[in-house]
Each structure stands twice: as C-alpha cells, then as structure tokens.
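Lab notebook: predicted structure, single chain.

Context: the supervisor wants predicted structures on file for every construct in the current expression panel, including those that have not yet been purified. This is the next one on the list. No modifications to the sequence; it matches the entry in the shared construct table.
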Amino acid sequence: MTRRPSRWRHALRWALLGWLALCGVGALWPAPPPRPEAPARVLCASLPSPLGAVAVHCWFVLEGHERWDVWQEADVGPVAYDHVHRDLQPPEAGVGGGETFEWAALDGSAGTAFAACLRVEAPRYADRATYRAWPGPNSNTFVDAMLRQCGWSLRLPGTAVGKDWRGLVGASTWGLGVQVESPLFGAAVGLDRGFELRVLELTLGVELWPPAIVHPFGGGRLGFPRR
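Prediction complete. Output recorded below exactly as produced.
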C-alpha cells in the first residue's frame, strides 16, 4: 500500500515552487536606477579575472563625492588610517575588473545620519591595521562592519568575499538573526534574512523577502532587487 504525502508536505512543496517562481520573476524585474544624489551609497566592482567571477570589492560613497574603502596597501592615500582610506580613488572608479555598480543607497535623514556615523567610526575601525585578501579582514569586512556599527541593515552580495569574517571562530547577531563563522565554514539564519551557508567564504543561501537566491557568482543574487 502506497502512502500518500502528508498535507503539510504537499503545501510545503507548492510553497517552495511558488517561491522559486518569484525568484525567477524577480530576476527579470528592472533594478532601480542609481541614486548618485543619495547621502550614503554602497558601490561594488568585480576584481580582475579570474577572481572577478566570484569576488567583488565594495566601498562607500558619501554625498556623491567622498569615498571610503579599505585597500591592501596601508597609508597610501591623501587621508588614510592604516588600510582605511578616504578618497584614494574617484568615487565610482573600479578595481581593474568589471564595471562599478550601485548595490544600495540610503536616502534622506537616514542616509545623512549614516554618513555622519561613518566619518566617525571608519578611522577607528578595529581591523584597520590588518589586511588579508582571504578570508579577511579585507575591504568587504570593513564595509560590513560599518553597516552594522552605523545601523544600516543591508547585506552585501554573495560575491563580497570577506564580509562575514569574524576571526578564526566567531559569532554575531545581525538584525533578527544570528551567524557563526570560521574561514572554512559558516552559517547564518534569521527572520529578516533567511538562511545562508558559507564554504571557504563563498556564500549560498536564500532570502525570504524579497525572494532571492544568494550565490557566489556574478551579481551574487538572483531575485528581486534589494534596495
């Protein structure tokens, strides 16, 4: 006698298929246009090949002209705090790989408050004296740390290798979730972020809303734009 699937399994299967269909629709949804006038923006660009296939470098641009990012060389720009630099390159200059793209922008008073916080916190970033391309701390570690420090609830793309560096072993909270990390394996789960699994700092996961699949290739995300 063949057992029929339980009702909850049937419902779960259809919910999963519906969610995957939404991700596919979202991938075709036009992304919002860049907002160069926003007080705070996160820009990213691919690294040179072959790393560019799975890795991007992200940074901040404030008020359209002021750039903050971490660079592999220390104290090489006009304003530097070890590896943290202000205006080392033009605001939208790439890093030798693909074109620069805007990952997110924060408008209005929230953007202005974030910019003010970043100017205070970036010079005293805890890992400013250390740089490791992999597993971190690197440029994406800095961006993620400042997002948390200054209250912008934004997740970087799955290709932002190093964003989840927490030391040899570490744990932290993020919004309504928790994550546990090591250079080899990591995981995160939360009501506001879904689930992510990391192997060698490469990310694969799901975002529940807006529906999206987080992956370690290309744009790092398949689904509705997250802005």
